[in-house]
Amino acid sequence: MKKERDAQTTAWRKRISNTGLNAKALALALENAGAAGVVICNWSSGFGVNKIFGANTTKIPTIDVALEDYGMLYRLTESGVKPVISVRADSKELGKVPTFNTLAEIKGTEKPNEYVMLSAHFDSWDGGTGATDNATGTIVMMEAMRILRKIYPNPKRTILVGHWGSEEQGLNGSRAFVEDHAEIVDNLQALFNQDNGTGRVANISGQGFLHAYSYIGRWLSKVPQEIRGEIETSFPGSPSGGGSDYASFVAVGAPAFSLSSKSWSYGNYTWHTNRDTYDKIVFDDVRNNAILTAILVYMACEDPEKTSREKAVLPINSRSGKQAEWPAQRKANRTGN
Ligand SMILES: [Zn+2]
């Protein structure tokens, strides 16, 4: 079955490449040729699941059709039936609209000018409702904040939560925050971001910070075994150049970490798909992650030591023979497109 599927996928790609155009250029060519709209089906390698990304057309609508329906349209067309479809599309292009970050704070008492941050993004793609990308991250951080505010109302360091806007267009909310708030970023004790699905946190990387093993190890040691037991750590790890908002902080050398989840087939089933909906949320996992986050934030706030930002010597890339470089800071897009 897998062989057949791979062969069909290859044949489909070949069909597109026979036009001499890639998917993006093909959409524009159809638009320029007077098409009323473009119907696509971008299969996500999961049963009945399509990826939903931006349209490649500029004026005419691009419509996602579910795999089963697309397959039928394809077969009807191939056998010369010339199917006609009727489309009702209520979406409107609104031009440039403002985006925003949502922040909340619990002021520190002993070191109010040092910060521990919780982080997730508030925007999502419109194929589903963004349940696992990144509502689960957002509710983990909201719930951790609720716990902290209740049982730890007077933290040593200031606790901040950032729910970022425009992450999906290039980490714009968090990059803008990093540009605008050097006084916070320079005094960041640690940041914890969660943004890869509903699963229990299973991996934490030191992001290339040489001494991360020491402080993260210290903080994790206070997390109950039933939560910590499944977490694999990698130190010093390598710094992420993108992927989610923690990378905006890592780029300027601030200790920011990804609380990385078990996948639950995130890549195939919910990430940027028409199936990223509420019913996919595993609330037991989300609860687990909220507890973990609250404990890590508490430990980072209480730690008598300020975290080290010393960077590890990055490895030599075996293919290029060059030493890896720390990712560069990239500017937020503040104007839209
Ligand atoms: Zn995301």
Structure report:
The two termini are 42 Å apart. A five-stranded mixed β-sheet has the order 3-5-4-6-9. Strands 8-7-10 form a three-stranded mixed β-sheet. Strands 1-2 form a two-stranded parallel sheet. 34% of the residues lie in helices and 15% in strands. It has helices at 2-17, 23-32, 67-78, 131-151, 172-180, 182-185, 212-220, 225-228, 246-250, 266-269, 283-302, and strands at residues 38-40, 62-64, 102-106, 111-121, 157-164, 188-193, 201-205, 232-234, 256-258, 260-261. The protein folds into two domains: 9-78, no CATH class; 102-302, 3-Layer(aba) Sandwich (Aminopeptidase). It binds zinc ion. Zinc ion binds next to helix 4.
Number of alpha- plus pi-helical segments: 11
CATH topology of the largest domain: Aminopeptidase
Strand order of the largest sheet: 3-5-4-6-9
CATH architecture verdict of the largest domain: 3-Layer(aba) Sandwich
Radius of gyration: 23 Å
Poorly predicted residue ranges: none
Can you tell me the overall shape?
elongated
What is the string of helix and strand elements? HHEEHEEHEHHEEHHEHEEHH
Largest sheet: 5 strands, mixed
- SS strand fraction: 5-15%
Bound molecules: zinc ion
Mean pLDDT, rounded to whole units? 95
CATH class of the largest domain: Alpha Beta
Integer tally of domains: 2
- In total, how many beta strands? 10
CATH superfamily of the largest domain: Zn peptidases
Structural class per helix/strand content?
alpha/beta
